[in-house]
């Protein structure tokens, strides 16, 4: 009788159940994954850019007429608001003046020309 010895080379089928092979990404694989990840971001940015111009003008435009006033020395918006609209709340008048003139604050200086809505200048 003769004995034969069989040698087997290790393969992936012979690995124990808990062993894992390490996955290596090539340069091309990284490029593909990066592209796939960035496509939704690019589409979202394009949709956002296209929808941002969605303001529509309607026929209900508000026209504000106003009167120009020059601020005198010692005057404040509070004193001007009390003078032009004695029956109204000065805070509301000041808010309208600041909004109409696009002022950063309620501080005015002598010689400054400001617009007063005509609803207050009667």
Automatic annotation (TrEMBL):
<dbReference type="Pfam" id="PF01476">
    <property type="entry name" value="LysM"/>
</dbReference>
<dbReference type="InterPro" id="IPR018392">
    <property type="entry name" value="LysM"/>
</dbReference>
<protein>
    <recommendedName>
        <fullName>LysM domain-containing protein</fullName>
    </recommendedName>
</protein>
<dbReference type="InterPro" id="IPR036779">
    <property type="entry name" value="LysM_dom_sf"/>
</dbReference>
<feature type="domain" description="LysM">
    <location>
        <begin position="67"/>
        <end position="116"/>
    </location>
</feature>
